[in-house]
Write a structure and sequence with these properties.
By secondary structure, the protein is of the alpha+beta class. It is built from six helices and ten strands, in the order H-H-E-H-E-E-E-H-E-H-E-E-E-H-E-E. The strands form three sheets. It has a five-stranded mixed sheet with strand order 5-2-3-6-9. The longest helix has 9 residues, at about 15-20.
Length: about 160
């Protein structure tokens, strides 16, 4: 994987953050279909990548604090496991408008990287089974592929089993 420059990568806050950190990554662009029922599954199909290597970024409210969960698109977020991973008691999905305002990204394009406000982040432990994973690069139709350890390091993520089938 070659490091991309700001211009080559589309210059989203996520790709700018990756370039500034000197992390190896690859940008994958595809034509977003607004009629597709799942942003993550659409990305996996468009890139020809297994859905267990494409991760979606979800924003939840854990005991009143917004928290990011990064889980495979093939799975679902286990809210109880997310709360436990950050030492909380209760978790619920965050209001989409609040998630967009807080992260600076639109739904379907929320990246765990380069968010307007840094939030506590939990990366599903299954990410460590892969040399690289794909996450949103900050807009619909744009994904970034990188090593899970780099994603965890840049976001300060905790690795925990927070996804279920």
């Amino acid at each position: 994987m070659a490091k991309k420059t700001k211009q080559q990568s589309g210059g989203t806050p996520a790709t700018v953050a990756l370039a500034a950190a000197g992390v190896a990554f690859t940008v994958h662009a595809y034509e977003h279909d607004s009629a597709h029922p799942s942003y993550g599954e659409e990305a996996a199909e468009a890139m020809g990548v297994s859905p267990d290597r494409v991760f979606k970024t979800l924003v939840a409210d854990v005991d009143g604090a917004l928290t990011v969960a990064v889980v495979p698109v093939a799975g679902r977020l286990d809210l109880k496991a997310l709360a436990a991973a950050v030492g909380g008691k209760r978790a619920a999905m965050a209001d989409p408008a609040l998630a967009e305002r807080t992260t600076g990204y639109v739904r379907g394009g929320i990246s765990p990287l380069g968010q307007r406000k840094r939030l506590a982040t939990v990366l599903d432990a299954s990410a460590s089974e892969h040399a690289t994973i794909c996450v949103s690069a900050g807009r619909r139709g744009l994904e970034v592929e990188l090593a899970p350890a780099d994603l965890a390091g840049l976001t300060g993520a905790v690795l925990a089993p927070v996804a279920r089938a």
